[in-house]
Design goal:
Layout: H1 4-10, H2 18-21, H3 26-43, H4 45-60, H5 65-111, H6 127-139
Length: 140
């Protein structure tokens, strides 16, 4: 097992890190790329105007509405799932950064002679209580 200071100095991730276990396969990488391109295209205002024009033309040509409804439903579900997948990836990354930040802060607290035990675990308190504790600390 590597020493923490060795891992931190080298910038390497330990073998148990989530990124080391979640090596994406080729299909997931390609699917992720395609969904990202489609989502970027769908977010463009001109693409949305094009979709409105497409729907208007569909109705003008008196084509079956059921097919258009099915197409639009599948499109909406797919785009929603892409957004949720991206959001989940960002939350996992943010959690990893939060854990690292807490570890750094814990190290600073342990190194400080004036640190108080009452402040440990205040993440679960209400915002007003945290602000009250913070003001008490700054007055010291």
């Amino acid at each position: 097992m590597k020493d923490i200071s060795t891992i931190a100095a080298s910038g390497a991730k330990p073998e148990s890190a989530p990124d080391a276990r979640m090596d994406k396969g080729a299909i997931k990488r390609i699917g992720g790329y395609v969904s990202e391109v489609v989502a970027d295209f769908a977010a463009d205002p001109m693409a949305q105007l094009g979709l409105v024009a497409f729907c208007a033309a569909w109705f003008a040509l008196r084509l079956p509405v059921e097919i258009l409804t099915a197409f639009l439903s599948i499109l909406a579900i797919t785009l929603t799932q892409m957004v949720l997948n991206k959001q989940n990836e960002r939350e996992v990354d943010a959690h990893r950064r939060d854990v690292a930040l807490h570890a750094k802060i814990d190290e600073l607290v342990h190194a400080s002679k004036r640190a108080r035990d009452e402040l440990a675990g205040i993440e679960d308190l209400e915002e007003e209580d945290i602000e009250r504790l913070r003001n008490a600390v700054t007055r010291m």
